[in-house]
TrEMBL record:
Top-level division of the source organism's lineage: Bacteria
Family affiliation: Belongs to the helicase family. RecQ subfamily.
Record-annotated Helicase C-terminal domain positions: 217-386
Keyword Metal-binding carried by entry: yes
BP GO terms, sorted: DNA recombination; DNA repair
InterPro entries reported for this sequence: DEAD/DEAH_box_helicase_dom, DNA/RNA_helicase_DEAH_CS, DNA_helicase_ATP-dep_RecQ, Helicase_ATP-bd, Helicase_C-like, P-loop_NTPase, RecQ_Zn-bd, WH-like_DNA-bd_sf
Its EC number(s): 5.6.2.4
Keywords linked to the UniProt accession: ATP-binding, DNA-binding, Helicase, Hydrolase, Isomerase, Metal-binding, Nucleotide-binding
GO molecular function: 3'-5' DNA helicase activity; ATP binding; DNA binding; four-way junction helicase activity; hydrolase activity; metal ion binding
Name of this protein: ATP-dependent DNA helicase RecQ
Organism name: Vreelandella andesensis
Amino acid sequence: MTSLSPQQTLKEVFGFDDFRGGQQAVVSSVLDGHSTAAIFATGAGKSLCYQLPALHLPHLILVVSPLLALMQDQLAFLARHGVAAASIDSTQDRDTTRDVMERAKSGELKILMVSVERLKNERFRHFLRQVPISLLVIDEAHCLSEWGHNFRPDYLKLPDYQRDFAIPQVLLLTATATAAVIADMREKFAIAPENVITTGFYRANLALLVAPAMENRQQQLIDWLKPQMPPGNEAPTIIYVTLQQTAEQVASALAAQGIAAQAYHAGLDSARRDEIQRQFMSGESPCIVATIAFGMGIDKANIRNVVHFDLPKSIENYSQEIGRAGRDGLPSTCLTIAGRDGLRVLENFVYGDTPEYAGILRLLEEISSAGQAPDRQWEVLLNTLSRDINIRLLPLKTLLVRLEMHGIIAPRFAFLAEYRLRYHVEPTALVGRFEGERAAFVRLLIDNIAIARTWGTVDFERLHQAGQTQRIDASRARVITALEYFQDKGWLTLEGKRMTDVYDICQPRFSVEALASQLYNECLNREQIEIERLGSMLALFESDTCLTRRLAEHFGDNTFSNNTFESPSLPEQGRCGHCSVCYGHPVRLPDTPPQSALLDNDFIRYATPFIQRHTEQLGLPPNAQRLAHFLCGLTMPIFTPLKARSINGFAVFEQRSYPEVREWVAGYLER
C-alpha cells in the first residue's frame, strides 16, 4: 500500500493532473469500502478506477475481462507506470502461469487479470482461495445481465465466485448499461443506488449522421469518404460491416479508388489481424473495413470517422463503436448508411441461436440418465455434446448455466481426457532418480506408456490395472501429478486435450418434458428480446428528435432534459446541434423491395437436396426449423458431418426473413 493520497498517486504514478468525469467519485467509493458500479461512456477512463485503488488497497485486485486484447493493452499501460500486474491466459506456458501465481501468493502482484472462463478451473479456484483479494473488478459488466446486449452465461456465476473467494467488494465497469441492466447489476451484487456513478453519454465533438442507403451503397461511401483521404493526410477511419465477405468487397472497392483500406475480420489468421491492427494504430494504414471483431481494446485517440456501412447489431453496439471516434476531443463524424436491407441478416443471426426443442430434450435426458448412476456425476465434452444434440456451443453453455441456476446440476471440476508425452531424457534414467515405492511407481509408468516413435499416449485404465496387480497406487490423480512434476523438471513434455467438465446431478428426478418446455420458452423469450432490440435501433435512426438526445436517454442519461451540459456551444435545450436531425435531415428508411413469392419449385430445387442427404445419413428427414436454418445459411452442429455448405440451396434465402422461410417450409412439409 502507498502512503500517497489518491490525488498524489494520480499525479506521481500515472502522470495525470486531474481526474476525468466520474473517476474521482468511483475511486473514493471503492476506497471507502463500497461495492460500486461505474457506467462511463466509451473512452472515458474506466480502467483508472481500479488501477489507482490497486495501489491503496491492501491485497490483490482480481480483474475479470472478456477479451485477451483488452488485458494486454491494460498490462502494457500498467507496466509503463510501474504497477505490478499480470494475467493468466490460455496463451501462456506452465512456467509463466506458475510464476504469476507465486507472485500473487507472495503479495508482489497488485492486479491479476483473467477471463471469466478461467474461474471454471478447479485448480485455479483453489489457488484463489489461498490469496487474499481486496476487490473483484468486472469489466464489460453488462455481460452479466440477461437484459444486456452481449449476455455471457458464465458471467451469471460471478456473484457466487465473489462469495466463494470471500472478496469484500466489487467494482462493475461498463460503457453500455440501460436502466434495466443497471438495476440487474445492482441486485446481483447488492450495490447501493448512491454507489452507481454515471458520467453521461453526451460528447460534444461527435457528429451523428444517418444517411439512407442508396442503390449503390459502395459508391455512396466512396463519394463521402474520398475527399477526406488526400494522400499523406488521410482521416483515420473505421468502417463497420456485418459479414466477412462484405469487408473484403468494400476494402477492395475503396482501394480501387485510391483509398488505402484493409479488411479485418475473424476469417483472417491471428498474425494477419495483429499486423493490420498494428498498421492502423501506427498510422501506416488509415482505413479499416471491419466486422465487430475489430475495436475492443482499441485506444487510438485520433479516429476521425466511424462509419456503419451495415446496420449495427444494437443501440448498445452502436454506442460502443462510435465511442472509438474522437477520443482526442477534436471533431469527428459517425456516419450510418442505413437501410432495411441488412435487417434480415441481423434478425436471422438471432433466430440462428435458438436451439431445437428436440436438442434441449436430449440434453435433459442425458442429465437424467447420469443422475441414476451411484455417484450422480456427469462427464461432458462440450464440443462432442454440442454435435450430438445439435445445439451450438454458446446456446449450450447458456442452457448449462440455466440448469445450474435451476439447481439441477452443479460444476465439480474439469479435466483433460487425453494426455500424451515425449521424453527428453532416457526413460530408464528416471527410475534411478527415485527410491523404494516411488521408483517402482516410475517404472510402472515407463513400462505401461507405450512410445510410438517420439510420442506416447497415457492410458489411465491400463496404468490403474497394472498398479492394482503390483499393489501400487496408480490413480489418475497421482499419475498426472507425477507427469506434471517430470515436465517441471524438464524431463519430458506433457500435452493434454479434450477438456472434460464434470457436474454433480443435484436433482436426479425431474420432469424432463416440463423442464424442456420451460427452457425452450426461455430461449424463445430471449429471441424476442433481441428482435425488439433491433427494432429499437431502427427507431433511433428514424427519429424526428435529436439523435444524440435519444441515444443518451436510452442509457438513462437525462443531461438534455436537465440542461446541464458542460459545453456552452448548445444552441438550445434538448438539442445537440450536431446530428442529422439537428441539421434538418431526419431520415425515413425506404422499405426493402418486395421479394417474389416462395413457390413449390423453389422447395423442390433448394430444399430437396438437403432433405435427401439428411435422410440418407441420419435415417429421417429434417424438421422445419433445421431446414429453414439450411436455406437461410444459419449454421448448426449437425451441418458439419452432413457437409451442408456444399449442398445446393445452402444460404439461398439468406436475405429473407427466417420466420417467413420456416413457416413456408412447415406448410410444405405438412402436406
